[in-house]
Amino acid sequence: MSDFKILSQLNSPEDLRKLPEEELPELCSEIREKLIEVVSVNGGHLASNLGVVELTVALHKTFKTPHDSIVWDVGHQSYTHKMLTGRFDKIDTIRKKGGLSGFPKRSESKYDEFNAGHSSTSISAALGISEAKKIKGDKSYTVAVIGDASFTGGMSLEGFNNAGRYAKRFIVVLNDNKMSISKNVGAFAKYLTKVRVNPWYLRVKNKLERIFLKIPLLGSLALKVIQRSTRNVKRMAYKNTMFENFGFTYFGPIDGHNIEDMSNAFEAAKKVNGPVLVHVVTKKGKGYEYAEKDPKTFHGINKFNIETGESPQSKESFSSVFGEYMCDIAQNDRRICGITAAMGPGVGLDKFAELYKERFFDVGIAEQHAVTFAGGLSAKGMVPVFAVYSTFLQRAYDQLLHDVAMQKLHVVIGIDRAGIVGDDGETHQGVFDVSMLNSFPNTTIYSPCYFEGLKKALNQAVYHTDSLVAVRYPRGGELYRPKDYTEVSVDFDFYGDLSSDTLIVTYGRLFSNCCKALEILKEKGKKICILKLNRIKPLPLDAVKASMKFKKIYFYEEGMYNGSIACSFNSELSELDYKGNLKIIAIDDKFVTHQTVNEALKELHFDSESIAKEILEDK
Ligand SMILES: Cc1ncc(C[n+]2csc(CCOP(=O)(O)OP(=O)(O)O)c2C)c(N)n1
Ligand SMILES: CC(=O)[C@@H](O)[C@H](O)COP(=O)(O)O
Ligand SMILES: [Mg+2]
């Protein structure tokens, strides 16, 4: 066990910049040890973080942060950055309620230039920062650090296209580890392989010399630096890459675990009068045997045993049930296609991918493309099922509307991680998809609570719906289910005491908590009834009508109040001239921060005790 002798002394990147070169390898091993230690307890994105230790050190050494700006893409790899920017003492709190976020947060530190969590934003954000600096006469540098998979997201290319036109003192660091969460896919990934292995690179030396000679003072100085270090220069190669065609000067590929080589490249990049792309090659999981061997598992992992690399096995989950169902129906129905935007393992489509190669599409981090592509498949008679996390579906708002719903194309969306997701925090909570889709015509939404309901809803979606249809389900495994509850209808069920004057209406995961609340209330002598909606859009009108007889209705919704199903339910009740009282408990105009799922549910008053208390104490 290390006492983190060097790391604990670094209170800011300024301290790092003063550190003797010979201490850097020891610093990097301390960082790796701390990363493994923290993630083994708190869970987190281990493999990506292990891969960028030297890169992060080289960046903070070469660029004068926070005067110079570093913008991290996704931000799941920013733990070392946090440790080097005055947050080492808090790193043990990462992803915990009230602790450091697992992603960059402007509110957390002046070194976190831009919030992230979703991919492919860094180039656009950094370009905006850079142009703002230009307008203000600030001559500092702006660096976007982006992974090879995030680079393929549409917005990166939009940003890159613009940056090539006018950016200055603007550097994109492409961190190429050949991996997304799974293996990186697509033409760009293939292209990078070519760039990496092609033997006939034009050595960068001549190119750099030409560039620097054009810049009189700084140029000759830089040239001396470069000439002194021919070994390093030889490693940097230049070829006529696609990046150059976009107006960028390309440096690379550079060993992303060699601080000296990277520092030289960054110093050289600073001298270029225009945007530069520095291509670094790293190993995801570097320095921890288990993560190097299996970076997919260690991309995002729950707590694990450092000695064995084992993490408590997750049992059957909604995602795995979804994946099994997909394999079952695809066997006899050749129209079924499975689509993922780089989340195959997360959404449970790995087995489908193996069994039905020609009908499986990992489109890379490209949610917008995934939806419109599904529209195209549907237009020619296929039944596309796009499995996507609720939070990432937000990316495809217009595609869902314009390319699917408006054309009444039959596309099925499996919305995984619907509702609160926990430690990833506000960027990842799945609490906006319902209000987003609720306003769309030609759209059906199911939100089951149990595995059985998920399969039934998928069946409805695939075989009994002819336009845009979403089936949403939470992160994790099967939920608490009362022994006497049986799911009868695919649209809605009543459970509990129908003769009560109090009704809870809910859907999805919260049905389970409401059932526990029902038991608490029963013990206290209060009987209630629960309306469990499975189909939440269009609302089953029979269910609304049957609710009219209850004097008091509580609508519990694990989603945003604005645009909620509760508000739609309220409108339907008003249409029917309901005279009772409806109270809506939903998420009221705020973002839900990182904490465990149960902590968040409690904070939002969605836990069984809060539900029971609300009903008992409400007058
Ligand atoms: C819009 C969006 N879609 C999907 C994800 C999920 N996701 C997080 S990291 C990641 C892979 C990123 O790969 P890369 O950028 O190469 O970084 P690496 O983890 O390899 O360092 C994915 C797909 C996301 N964060 N944002
Ligand atoms: C950074 C990112 O967006 C993903 O890695 C995400 O954290 C995965 O979440 P799950 O753990 O729910 O699969
Ligand atoms: Mg990668």
TrEMBL record:
Q: Which residues bind thiamine diphosphate?
A: 76, 117-119, 149-150, 177, 288, 367
Question: Where along this sequence does the record place binding of Mg(2+)?
Answer: 148, 177
Question: InterPro entries, alphabetically?
Answer: Dxylulose-5-P_synthase, THDP-binding, Transketo_C/PFOR_II, Transketolase-like_Pyr-bd, Transketolase_BS, Transketolase_C, Transketolase_CS
Is Cell inner membrane among the key words of this record? no
Single GO MF annotation: 1-deoxy-D-xylulose-5-phosphate synthase activity
State if Electron transport is listed as a keyword.
Answer: no
Identify the keywords attached in UniProt to this record, alphabetized. Isoprene biosynthesis, Magnesium, Metal-binding, Thiamine biosynthesis, Thiamine pyrophosphate, Transferase
Boundaries of each Transketolase-like pyrimidine-binding domain copy?
A: 316-481
E.C. code: 2.2.1.7
Q: Which reaction does it catalyse?
A: D-glyceraldehyde 3-phosphate + pyruvate + H(+) = 1-deoxy-D-xylulose 5-phosphate + CO2
Enzyme class, spelled out = transferase
Q: Which cofactor does it need?
A: thiamine diphosphate; Mg(2+)
One protein family per Pfam: Transketolase_C
Pathway per the UniProt entry: Metabolic intermediate biosynthesis; 1-deoxy-D-xylulose 5-phosphate biosynthesis; 1-deoxy-D-xylulose 5-phosphate from D-glyceraldehyde 3-phosphate and pyruvate: step 1/1
The record describes how the cofactor is bound as: Binds 1 thiamine pyrophosphate per subunit.
PANTHER family membership: 1-D-DEOXYXYLULOSE 5-PHOSPHATE SYNTHASE-RELATED, 1-DEOXY-D-XYLULOSE-5-PHOSPHATE SYNTHASE, CHLOROPLASTIC
The function of this protein is: Catalyzes the acyloin condensation reaction between C atoms 2 and 3 of pyruvate and glyceraldehyde 3-phosphate to yield 1-deoxy-D-xylulose-5-phosphate (DXP).
Outline the subunit composition.
Answer: Homodimer.
The family assignment reads:
Belongs to the transketolase family. DXPS subfamily.
The molecule here is called 1-deoxy-D-xylulose-5-phosphate synthase
Q: Which gene encodes it?
A: dxs
